[in-house]
Design a protein that fits this description.
With 121 residues, the protein is mainly alpha-helical. It has a domain of 73 residues: Double Stranded RNA Binding Domain. The protein is built from 5 helices and 2 strands; from the N terminus they run ααββααα. The chain has a two-stranded antiparallel sheet with strand order 1-2. A hairpin with a 4-residue loop joins strand 1 and strand 2. The longest helix has 13 residues. The radius of gyration is 23 Å and the shape is flat. The chain starts with 15 loop residues before the first helix and ends in a 15-residue tail after the last helix. It holds the Pfam family zf-C2H2_jaz. One of its GO terms (molecular function) is zinc ion binding. Belongs to the ZNF593/BUD20 C2H2-type zinc-finger protein family. This is Zinc finger C2H2 protein ECU02_0310. It is found in: Cytoplasm; Nucleus.
């Protein structure tokens, strides 16, 4: 007797709503975050962040490794203890991520390497 009605069309939103939510706050690519962390390591220390009303916590609580803003310091500290942040730190401390130039060279779109010139005319 029970069960679902066969003609009823129910849209299942399993992953579509999550990806739309994630794209709301665009995150930088791995190569951009990696270069930003290298610049911070070469400099003296973190610069004071400007106030921005559109970002959570007025843009004052930021995680450079994950490229995320947080509402307050407690939430950011909780994020620092999370498994996701620790994996991201380990990934950013490892070898440099692939860049756009690497992708173009792998696809054969870079400068052609014809080898050394054997005979000159």
């Amino acid at each position: 007797m029970g069960g679902k009605c066969p003609h009823r069309k129910v849209k299942k939103r399993r992953l579509s709503h999550k990806s739309a939510r994630r794209s709301k706050f665009l995150v930088k690519g791995d190569d951009a975050v990696y270069s930003e962390i290298l610049k911070m390591a070469e400099g003296e220390g973190p610069k004071p962040l400007p106030h921005d009303e559109d970002l959570p916590g007025m843009g004052q609580f930021y995680c450079a490794h994950c490229d995320r803003y947080f509402a307050n310091d407690d939430v950011r500290e909780e994020h620092f203890r999370s498994k996701r942040h620790k994996k991201r730190v380990k990934q950013m401390n490892g070898p440099a991520p692939h860049t756009q130039l690497d992708a173009e060279l792998a696809a054969g779109m870079g400068m052609p390497d014809n080898g050394p010139m054997l005979m000159s005319m």
